[in-house]
Structures are given as C-alpha cells and as structure tokens.
Design a protein that fits this description.
Elements (H helix, E strand, L loop, with lengths): L6 E7 L6 H12 L5 E7 L10 H6 L3 E4 L9 H18 L3 E5 L1 H13 L4 E6 L10 H15 L4 E4 L2 H9 L8 E3 L16 H7 L7 E6 L8 H14 L3 E6 L5 H10 L6 E5 L4 H5 L4 E4 L9 H7 L4 E4 L2 H6 L7 E3 L4 H13 L1 H14 L5 H19 L1
Parallel strand pairs: 1-2, 1-4, 2-3, 4-5, 5-6, 6-7, 8-9, 8-11, 9-10, 11-12, 12-13
Helix pairs in contact: 3-4, 8-9, 8-13
Length: about 400
C-alpha cells in the first residue's frame, strides 16, 4: 500500500447487463468514498437480450475498462487471453484490492490478481454459479473451481446467509471465509415515482380500476417466467379486471408469449421489455410476484417492498432470507404456480393481512440501503488492508 495515496480498487464483472449483481457492482463503485478509494470497473462487452448498463456506469462518471475476451461461456482461448490482459492491466494500474463479481470474472479476476501480486483479493457471491438444475458433472466442476480459487481469496462476501450455507454444504471453505453484506439499493428512488399511477397505467393501456399483478425478471429458466404465466392463468379464471405485467426480456420471451396466448391471457398481459423506470412501473402494481427457481439475494424484492407492495416469492435462497412468510411477505414452494395464485388470492381477499405485510416490509428494507452496504464493504477493505501491513 502506498502511504498517503488513495487505495486503488478494481471491480471485475463478466457482463454489465441489467441485473442484481451488476447494479450492486455499479452502486458499490459509485458510493465508495472517492476521497479515500480510487475505483475502476472492468467488464466484458456481452449484453444480448438482458440489456446493458454500460452507459449508466459512464453517466455516473465511473472509470470503466471493457475487455472483449471476458465472456460468459467457457472458451479456453478467450479465457486465457482475458487472464493475461487482466494481469497486465492490474500490474499497470497497481491495484491494492481486486474485488470480483459473477462466476467467470470471479475465477479469472482472482487468479489474475494473485498472479499480479495484488495484496487483497475479495469476491462477492451474488448467487453461486453451480445449482441443482445443472448436470452433476458440470455442477461438481464449478464447485471444484470455487474450492481451488478460494485458496487465493482473502474474503468471500455473500449477499445472503443462505449463500453461505449453500457454499459450506458444498465444501467451499469454512465459516470464517465469509462475510454477509446485503446487496444495497437506492431506497430513495423506490416509493417516490416521478410519474403518477394513473398516467403510467394509461401509457400501458391498463384500466384504472384493474388489479395489477406484476414482476420484474429476466425471461430465463432461472426466473421461471412460465410459472408466472401459469399462475396468471389460474388467477384470470377466478377474477375479472385483473392484468399482468412482466418487466424484462430474455431468451424465453417467445415461449412466454406463446404460453400466454395458449392460456387465453395474452390480452391481459403487458410485456414492457427492458426498462429502467422500475420505480414508476412498480407503482402501478397491486402485488409483486417473483417466481424464481434459484437466486442469490434478489434486489427486486426490497425494491418492491420499498415501493409499498406486498410480495409473493418462491422460498429459495436469498428470497427466504428477506421474507418471513405471513409477516413481511408470502413465501411459496418453487415450481408451484398454483401456490403463487393461492397466495395472491389470499392477499387480495384479506386486506388486513396485506396491510400488515406492507407495513412490516417497509421496516425490512432499511437493511438494504446502498449506504449501509458500502459502509460494510469499506470496513471490510480496511480490515483486510490492515492485516496485510
């Protein structure tokens, strides 16, 4: 460490798409005290249907390096090129801390940092790269990579305690290797929309007296959007004047449209595509639903809570850590659209329950402020730097 100078930090991440890990990285770099920390982000250039926050990172006047050879897929030649280019950059910029995010950048970034003699190496687990839906061979390969790479890592940050339990159960390190730092959101943005509810509903051609069930997800197998459609179809059979809104895009878009048409709810389904005005869109919802099959800590849940919405979510990983079912939200089994529909009906028919849940949810979100997240990260950095002196 250089006495009297700012401490240099690099945040490598595989892609700057619209997503929780990416927003976490951007907000961390943005809110760190720039009088003490000199912060850069490095990312691959892939975006695809998920959309990009590269321009948003630049609009925040954050220093950004783009590495074309850092790709999501396993690609030995590009992976090796990315590794050596990252080593060269780290040596040139003389980083004191390399703090990686996402699975691919988490492996390549940490090894590049170690080979470049970076004093402090940190990785945030936003959700493990291995999960139960993978083939056993692929899953074990990813676990092995994490075990080996942990040996050169000073600290793992987990965005939820359940990520730690999962890592320990898979034999990745011991309890002292982990710190829980919850993923923060800009709470002031949510619950304070810049466009009123009536105007936004008119823009989406939703009747003012309709009940709106909404979600904000990537249209991918992980998020199970087809379960949302199935639950919507069950609800549509029971209730008139109910509309459904999906904010987001992804590889399952065509299948979602086909399923909605097949179940005769397409005329009541609004698919906005990729949007960044999430607070304004959430303001038109009556209930928020998250149908994911696995998650790290879904930032969209505290966003919905801060917007004053009752949340119905699947009882997986970080979702189950945020929500105490029946108190500040409702949890249902993953892969069970019928249970999603039943929970929505319960909230709509029991106004006292819905009101209590909304009040308790607003108390919950204080734990997820971006400033609290960054304060914890700064404290961790300082502790690790002090140990290296």
């Amino acid at each position: 460490m250089r006495q009297g100078q700012k401490i240099r930090v690099l945040h490598p991440i595989t892609r700057l798409i619209i997503g929780g890990a990416q927003e976490n990285t951007m907000l961390t770099a943005s809110y760190l005290d720039h009088s003490q920390w000199s912060v850069d982000i490095l990312s691959g250039i892939q975006t695809a249907s998920e959309g990009s926050i590269i321009n948003e990172v630049r609009d925040r006047q954050l220093s950004l390096f783009l590495e074309p050879d850092l790709v999501r897929e396993i690609h030995p030649l590009k992976d090796l090129k990315a590794l050596f280019r990252l080593i060269r950059l780290i040596k040139k910029q003389k980083y004191d801390i390399v703090h990686t995010h996402s699975s691919k950048a988490g492996i390549i970034g940490r090894w590049a940092a170690w080979l470049a003699d970076v004093p402090v190496i940190v990785h945030t687990v936003h959700g493990w790269g291995h999960h139960d839906q993978q083939s056993p061979l692929i899953r074990q390969f990813y676990i092995l990579l994490e075990k080996i790479t942990l040996k050169i890592t000073d600290q793992l940050i987990a965005v939820s305690g359940k990520n730690i339990h999962k890592g320990l159960a898979d034999g990745i390190g011991k309890g002292t290797d982990y710190s829980v730092i919850r993923s923060g959101i800009e709470l002031d943005r949510f619950g304070h929309p810049t466009i009123d509810k009536e105007t936004m509903r008119k823009q989406l051609m939703i009747p003012s007296d309709a009940t709106v069930i909404g979600t904000v997800i990537r249209l991918s197998p992980q998020k199970a959007p087809l379960d949302f459609i199935e639950a919507a179809a069950l609800l549509a059979r029971q209730m008139d004047k109910m509309y459904f809104v999906i904010v987001g895009d992804g590889p399952l878009r065509d299948k979602v449209i086909h399923a909605a048409k097949e179940k005769n709810i397409y005329d009541r389904l609004i698919m906005t595509g990729l949007r960044r005005d999430i607070p304004e869109l959430m303001n038109i919802f009556d209930i928020f639903v998250l149908s994911s099959l696995w998650e790290g800590l879904p930032r969209v849940i505290p966003q919905a809570m801060a917007s004053g919405l009752p949340v119905v979510a699947t009882a997986i990983d970080g979702s189950a850590e945020i929500i105490n079912s029946g108190q500040n939200g409702m949890l249902v089994p993953p892969g069970d659209p019928k249970s999603i529909a039943e929970a929505v009906v319960q909230l709509l028919s029991n106004h006292q329950l819905a009101s209590t849940i909304k009040q308790e949810a607003l108390k919950t979100v204080d734990e997820y402020s971006v400033q609290k997240m960054v304060d914890h990260i700064e404290s961790l950095y300082e502790r690790l730097i002090y140990k290296k002196k």
